[in-house]
Design brief:
Layout lengths: L14 E5 L2 E7 L11 E6 L4 E5 L4 E4 L1 E4 L5 E5 L3 E7 L8 H9 L4 H14 L11 H9 L10 H10 L9 H8 L3 H12 L3 H12 L10 H7 L5 H12 L3 H6 L5 E4 L11
Parallel strand pairs: 1-9
Antiparallel strand pairs: 1-2, 2-8, 3-6, 3-8, 4-5, 4-7
Length: 272
């Protein structure tokens, strides 16, 4: 699978690389409202500085800021655009993200910020190459590959079902039946393996999938239905909770965003 990008959108400098377990975004942050994404986030200033405030009382100011998954926070940039690197927590063993956070916020924080800014500069050359692996992505951003979490095959199949986004609801009962488990046993296994409840995991992945379409002129009500939201109100509330922005604001601010898609995008709006 090749990474795909619209070359007409490269001139703005706003770019996003999406893989199944990583995102690299360089673009507008939008208005400073509280957000609570389900992934580990590393924010890096393109110029000037960032300001981070978290729901547990942390305050940070500088060129690099880190937030753990499912932590409510507000991020602002003195410059109109910033870089954000996201890592899905189920892709790495327990304790890995905490160790990465300590490294990034330690004495070499400036070196990591420069490395991530250098990675941003390489994205313009990626449109004709094969899909990037987690190891390549991590090395590009952090200098080495992060360890990969090994999940139970039954959980892997459930995650694949959630990631199909065919419009049909993916339920715990359906995944449990496919795994040959009772619903309660499956839910326990899923949380034990991934560190997050099935319902929360599904909600985040649904909101994350919207990123694939962020620069398209698209009917948002139809998109909400296509990726599994029961109605537009639920769609808007969910997106605003995870990203701190309404769906329309995300699409409005992403018109000049070049999106590099690595890995399979499934559903009615599937892309090559």
């Amino acid at each position: 699978m090749d990474a795909v990008v619209d070359p007409q959108r490269q001139d703005s400098g706003h770019r996003m690389l999406i893989t199944p377990e990583r995102v690299f975004y360089a673009g507008l942050l939008g208005r400073p409202r509280e957000r609570c994404p389900g992934a580990f986030h590393v924010y890096v200033a393109i110029r000037d500085a960032l300001h981070l405030a978290t729901s547990d009382g942390q305050q940070a100011h500088g060129e690099l800021a880190v937030t753990m998954p499912n932590l409510r926070h507000t991020i602002t940039s003195e410059y109109r655009a910033a870089i954000c690197v996201a890592i899905e927590p189920e892709s790495v063993p327990d304790g890995t993200l905490e160790a990465v956070a300590r490294r990034l916020q330690g004495p070499d924080a400036g070196l990591f910020a420069n490395r991530i800014r250098a990675a941003y500069a390489t994205l313009a050359d990626m449109q004709y190459r094969d899909a990037i692996s987690n190891a390549e992505f991590d090395t590009m951003c952090f200098g080495d590959a992060l360890p990969q979490r090994v999940l139970d095959p039954r959980v892997v199949r459930a995650i694949a079902r959630i990631g199909q986004f065919s419009g049909e609801p993916v339920t715990a009962a359906g995944c449990a039946a496919e795994a040959g488990l009772s619903p309660s046993r499956f839910l326990h296994l899923f949380k034990e393996e991934t560190g997050i409840s099935f319902r929360s995991f599904r909600a985040w992945k649904r909101a994350r999938h919207l990123l694939h379409f962020a620069n398209q002129d698209i009917n948002l009500a139809h998109l909400a239905q296509d990726i599994g939201y029961p109605d537009s109100t639920h769609f808007s509330h969910s997106i605003r909770r995870f990203y701190g922005l309404k769906p329309r604001a995300i699409f409005s601010g992403s018109r000049d965003l070049a999106i590099y898609r690595a890995g399979q995008v499934v559903g009615e709006r599937a892309l090559p």
